[in-house]
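Training component of the fellowship. As part of building independent skills, the fellow (R.M.) carried out the full modelling exercise for a liganded target. The chosen ligand was NAP. The inputs are recorded below so that the supervisory panel can assess the work.
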Amino acid sequence: MPAQLIDGKAIAESLREEVKQKVSERVAKGLATPGLATVIIGDNPASKVYVRMKQKACQDAGIYSVGHELPGDASQEEVETLIRKLNNDPKIHGILVQLPLPAGLNEEQVLNSISLQKDVDGFHPINIGRLAQKGREPLFIPATPSGVIYLLEQSGAQLEGANAVVLGRSNIVGMPVSMLLVHANATVTICHSRTKDIPAITREADILVAAVGIPEYVRGDWIKPGATVIDVGVNRVEDASAKRGYRLVGDVAFDEAVEVARAITPVPGGVGPMTIAMLLRNTLRAARLADGNDVG
Ligand code: NAP
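Fellow's submitted model of the complex:
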């Protein structure tokens, strides 16, 4: 029987609706409208598209958003001065610096300059550090990784005691997903470009998260029957029959995997839409933290 499809688009829509509702309730009570500041440095076209999508989503949810753009040759001091200004702006509850930064800027220092209470992207070294420690809670969890965990939960996957395999160890996806799975009491194996015999490892996985950025890398016979598969990959492959000349595929060979897995995310329409939904949720949380209300 083909796998259950984990419909990230529908799940994200319902989360966005929930955030919108909560924003309107708090505004009706006279509490501050949640505010998100986005910062883009340089001319990366993909970054501009992502930031526009995030701003549009804020607008739809009733969240105030303001965009800042700095030139690609902006100095470390200029970037940090802008962030300090946003840290002190009471209308702004969340600050999102779109990554990657142009070469020459110190990413860790930029992320470190964001106020911990406004770190809605969850990449501040202290938030990431807390994620890596037992019994500590970060104030914010990065959006894509928390979207992965949310989809796993929604799919009915049992995380506690499960064998989870994460393909990829990047700072933005693989590593934080792995740490979140450990927090959820899964036993986690992290694979990367130097790992030997990855198919033998993935065949033991009750939960498989793929975040390598290689089109259809994971084949159907790498998957344990009954596993839950979350495909984070978004890759363009040429397709002359498609209007734009390409189509998007994940890191998993979907047509093969769907015959083996218990549940699987599609690409597009799986993890992708969750990222923005989780960012909105984090921004609402940041506004509640500013109220002095530390409820999730
Ligand atoms: P990344 O920074 O390029 O990291 C890729 C990871 O995969 C690295 O850890 C790398 O290992 C590992 N890897 C590369 N080749 C491998 C191989 N042959 N076998 C095993 N592991 C291999 O990528 P990323 O930023 O994490 O993104 C991963 C994918 O997720 C991309 O397709 C990206 O577009 C997608 N993505 C989607 C969303 C979303 O849907 N919202 C958000 C972010 C990313 P090393 O560490 O050894 O180099």
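The panel noted the following from the submitted structure. The chain has a mean pLDDT of 97. The longest strand covers residues 35-41.
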